[in-house]
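yo

u said u wanted the structure for the complex thing, so here. seqs first:
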Amino acid sequence: RLPSRPPHSWRGKMEGGKAYSDGVFAHLEMLEARAREAAVKQEEMEQQEEKLARLKARVQELRLQRDELRAKVELQEKGQLGKGGVVSDPAQPSARAVLEWKIKSVKATLQVFYLTGISGKLTKRGVCFCISTAYEGTYLDSYCLDLLIKPEVRIHRHSVPVFIPLEQIAKKYLQTDIRRFLSVLSDHLNAYAGRRYQADQLQEHFSDQIEGTLQRNSLCNLLIFNYNVSSKSQTFLLRVRLLYGDLCCSLPTEVVVSCAPDAPASLAEMAAAHSDLFRRTALHKAFRSFGSADKS
Amino acid sequence: MDNSICQVYEEIQSLEEEIKLLAEKYEDNQHESTFFSDEEIVMSIKSFQREFQRGSKAHESPSDLKSELESLEADLSFLMKFTGIQFTSHYKKTLEKTKNRTVQKHRLSGNCHSLSFQLEFQLLEIQNKESVSAVITDLSIIMESGEDSDMSKFVSSTEEHGNLLTFFRSLSSYAEWYEHRRCTFLHFK
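structre next:
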């Protein structure tokens, strides 16, 4: 049993030598424990300080490196490093540097092909084509097809979604005209990407005008939703059904805009006007024009 | 103590990122302000092979670089032949480069079958959580056969909406048709 009181309070309770020596040892042990703890804490603190000092030295190193690089880039931009590629010998670039430059340039031009809509890479057994999609200036998903060319052209692997009629298109064109095959497939994919983009843009930027959920199928060629319009400071609900019958087109072939049977005549007129607009204009652009048109 | 160590770690991380971007910027500037002709390339390949045979310490053998270049050039030449789009020059300049955003200016000239074009545009690439999004802005197109009124209407509409992809796809099919028509006329002459 170790007394937890400081020494002076049990001097009075001493009952014989053994109790005294037990107490002294207990006290000594406690002092030792305290000293150990203090030493450990001291060591930890010293380690932390060392660590901080090392890290601060690293920061100095990095700052120096950063400043050197900044100066190099500034010189470059002022045109003082001149042509040639390699800094160490600006007048005579090494053969390796020249080759690496050429490799980087060819890679950059290959990347531009991605922007044209059809890019690809030769493989051991054929070609791997990549069809890119875009809506106006925004590039969307790209889809790849790994083609084998012997004994006949066939699709080994692809990342085209299942709802795109790939087999139909392949059956019609793959054997006779690969270019045409890719072009038709690209039309389908770009139209699909364009329809999906319009629906996404609508949900992203005009969600406050949409009531409930926007129903769409995976091919994004059928959209049904309700949206509110204001007329003479009253809000009404219109329901629209968009059917994109031409899978290579990102504008609908059939539009039905309906309102409640008890709605005023002006609303029916608005519904007809909207129906016409949706047939001619991209969905999100149509909604953008609503925002600037009726401010009632 | 923990707080100051944390702050120092943050500063180290931000410095490392800055250094990485600066190094990339240096490489880009270096690359974009340099040009080597085809003869210089061929000479370099030969000299590189000679250097290697003489036993210099190249950790990457010349055949690796040479075959990489040959494979890339084969891909490029295949694409140009297949699509009919030949690029005769490509100039690229990095205007802005941060951790998540890169803006590049491109100048391209080439032809699609017999139709020549010159393009200029800016390409903005943004790094999202899972992917990279790319947007074309400031598109400017010059067509050699620009007198055709249908063509100029098509070109201005394309420029207005940044429709680079549509431009190339339409150009490709128009050029094929144009070529076919030209050959047909020649046939009947």
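The helical segments of chain B are 2-32, 38-53, 62-83, 149-161, 164-188. Strands of chain B lie at 85-97, 101-112, 115-127, 132-143.
cya
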